From TrEMBL:
Annotated EC: 6.3.5.2
Protein name: GMP synthase [glutamine-hydrolyzing]
Top-rank lineage group of the source organism: Bacteria
Role: Catalyzes the synthesis of GMP from XMP.
Record-listed ATP binding positions: S228, G229, G230, V231, D232, S233, S234
Record's keyword terms, sorted: ATP-binding, Glutamine amidotransferase, GMP biosynthesis, Ligase, Nucleotide-binding, Purine biosynthesis
GMPS ATP-PPase domain sequence ranges: 201-393
PROSITE patterns: GATASE_TYPE_1, GMPS_ATP_PPASE
């Protein structure tokens, strides 16, 4: 395996991501625990030193274990990792402005130019005369360690790419792992090839290791999990189930704000098809009762959030001896914060639905997906045998249809909304557009309009169709359906869904709109 020593960079996980893309097994360990002994025991085939916020010029700042330099394995230092390498091997690093060293800081886009001599690490990296790279450093290397030569320079980093080919040590000042170093993956590919990795690591192997880790953490204790039917909680539950079997109990809260047939489908799949212990908490009356007469978006959200926690707690309390709460937190949900008093540490953005619950209930967290990105979670779900139609589903918000029903929520409106949404999604699937769209749904508007059907006058609800493209839900653009598609869909909804006589298409992007209507 490949070991990544983490010096606390915000983007260390991206290094892991780039390596997984090359089908290479890697592990991230914080620098504090990588002692000479740990290193010897792990016997990694190669090591990558991450970036980090500290300055190697500061006394007591983090270092790599001394034995790393004599193991005879390839090492790649990135940013702070480069500086650690230079400092420990006899070079010189100067502090930037922040540290009083007077050096030149460099943040953002830079262009690296190759020297005449090309090395394997850079094979295929320079597509033109220079290559874009992302810099983020205050300090800089002022003198190379013995044995090193320069192979790439940038205006503010004369030692942008350096290497000691004899010892297979490589060091770059920029961050090849980030998106803004467009050709960065090539560099990682070259590094793992020259380190002798064959790229035979798979999601199946990842699954086995994740299962081992869960077993180690959970032991023979009971685990509970809030199953929402969304991709993340579903994959987390399926993985937990493989790891600890019947020690896992899932609670599926039906708040009456789910899509057509959703509750039955989710419960049937997990309980009957996958043999998980699932408690189907039918609390429709409770939620809809408390929501009655409420039309303010924030009030509605708060009611749902509060009831969800109450209900989950009630059912969880019935599960004897539960010590762990499983959550499908993904890497993008994890905000890495670094405090050098205690070393790199991680704080969690609490999940919408169960935020605050673990502390309140004295539960420990199991978050088996926290190293993964959405597409990797889908791949893992696939590996766990979840059907593709399920894994590829559009995101669905915790408060469900409540936020697609502006104004007061009534059972009548919800029923109409469910039917209209089902027709719309069916249209999208029939036209083969589902996977091109990040999220699509119908919102029922709090307004009735006049129409004419047959010879009669109608006075029914209007609805809005929403479909957006997005990478992460933070920004979004409306999907450019053809007029033909829109016309056909409007006709189908009005014909097939009693209670709707007018269909509109929402063409607002985010910002200024949000994806949901509330
Ligand atoms: P907005 O409407 O804020 O939505 O543009 C961005 C993405 O987040 C989803 N969303 C939620 N998901 N709990 C969730 O689990 C929520 O309270 C919530 N609100 C919005 C929304 O569906 C979209 O994918």
């Amino acid at each position: 395996r490949l070991l990544i020593i983490d010096f606390g960079s915000q983007v260390t996980q991206l290094i892991a991501r780039r390596l997984r893309e090359q089908n290479v097994f890697c592990e991230i360990l914080p620098y504090q625990i990588v002692t000479d002994d740990v290193l010897a025991e792990m016997a990694p085939k190669a090591v990558i030193l991450s970036g980090g916020p500290d300055s190697v010029t500061r006394e007591g700042s983090p270092r790599a274990p001394e034995s790393l330099w004599t193991m005879g394995i390839p090492v790649l230092g990135i940013c702070y990792g480069q500086q650690v390498m230079m400092e420990q091997l006899g070079g010189k690093v100067l502090g930037g402005k922040n540290t009083g060293g007077g050096g030149t800081a460099e943040f953002g886009r830079a262009y690296v130019t190759p020297t005449e001599e090309r090395i394997d690490l850079l094979a295929g990296w320079f597509l033109g005369e220079k290559e874009q790279a992302w810099m983020s450093h205050g300090d800089h290397v002022a003198k190379l360690a013995p044995g090193f030569k320069v192979y790439g320079t940038s205006p503010n980093a004369p030692f942008a790419v350096t290497a000691d080919l004899e010892r297979n040590f490589y060091a770059v000042q920029f961050h090849p792992e980030v998106h803004h170093t467009p050709n960065g993956p090539t560099l990682f590919e070259n590094f793992v090839r020259l380190a002798g990795f064959t790229g035979d690591w798979t999601m199946e192997a990842y699954k086995d290791i994740a299962i081992e880790k869960i077993r180690e953490q959970v032991g023979d204790k009971q685990v509970i999990c809030a199953l929402s039917g969304g991709v993340d909680s579903s994959v987390a539950a399926a993985l937990l189930h493989e790891a600890v079997g019947d020690q896992l109990t899932c609670v599926f809260v039906d708040h009456g704000l789910l899509r057509l047939n959703e509750a039955d489908e989710v419960v049937a799949m997990f309980r009957d098809h996958m043999n998980l212990k699932v408690i189907h908490a039918d609390e429709v009356d409770l939620f809809l009762g408390e929501l009655e007469g409420q039309s303010d978006p924030e009030t509605k959200r708060k009611i749902i959030g509060r009831l969800f926690i109450d209900v989950f707690q009630k059912y969880a309390n019935e599960i004897e001896g539960a010590e762990f709460l499983a959550q499908g937190t993904l890497y993008p949900d994890v905000i890495e914060s670094v405090s050098f008093s205690g070393g790199p540490s991680v704080t969690i953005k609490s999940h919408h639905n169960v935020g605050g619950l673990p502390e309140k209930m004295g539960l420990k967290l199991v978050e088996p997906l926290r190293e993964l990105f959405k597409d990797e979670v889908r791949a893992l779900g696939h590996e766990l045998g979840l059907p593709s139609s399920f894994i590829g589903r559009h995101p669905f918000p915790g408060p469900g249809l409540a936020i697609r029903c502006p104004g007061e929520i009534t059972r009548e409106k919800l029923e109409i909304l469910r039917k209209a949404d089902a027709v719309y999604i069916d249209q999208i699937r029939r036209h083969g557009l589902y996977d091109e769209i990040w999220q699509a749904f119908v919102a029922i508007l709090p307004v009735r309009t006049v129409g004419v059907m047959g010879d009669g006058r109608t006075y029914d609800f209007a609805c809005a169709l929403r479909a957006v493209t997005s990478v992460d839900g933070m920004t979004a653009d409306y999907y450019p359906f053809s007029h033909e598609f829109l016309g056909e869909t409007a006709t189908r909804i009005i014909n097939e869904v009693p209670g709707i006589n007018r269909v509109t298409y929402d063409i607002t992007s985010k910002p200024p709109g949000t994806i949901e209507w509330e």
